[in-house]
Hints:
Elements: E1 18-24, E2 29-35, E3 52-58, E4 61-65, E5 72-74, E6 79-82, E7 88-93, E8 99-105
Antiparallel strand pairs: 1-2, 2-8, 3-6, 3-8, 4-5, 4-7
Amino acid sequence: xxxxxxxxxxPEQIPEEVLEEVFRAEHFRIERIIxxxxxxxxxxxYDQGHDEWxxxxxxxxxxxxxxxxxAVMLKPGDYINIPAHRKHxxxxxxxxxxxxxxxxxx
Length: 106
């Protein structure tokens, strides 16, 4: 048994968003994402070939879906399911503290 804590080993400096695989099985994987002031590059959209369920555990973020004019604000405890090929982008994450996400790709 390998006990870990989702809030441990968060780097002091985060020049780029941190993506860490927490668990993988045949049909899904769980990923920890750590952001601080990060966003998706200008003009870029995520267009994933699989569904993704995500929750913000700490911090906050704005998620924009293609065709929408306003970002969905996520705070601790908020979760969302993103269907495959639903284009989206991270508009912003809190620049003052880490935003810790947990994403399940299935």
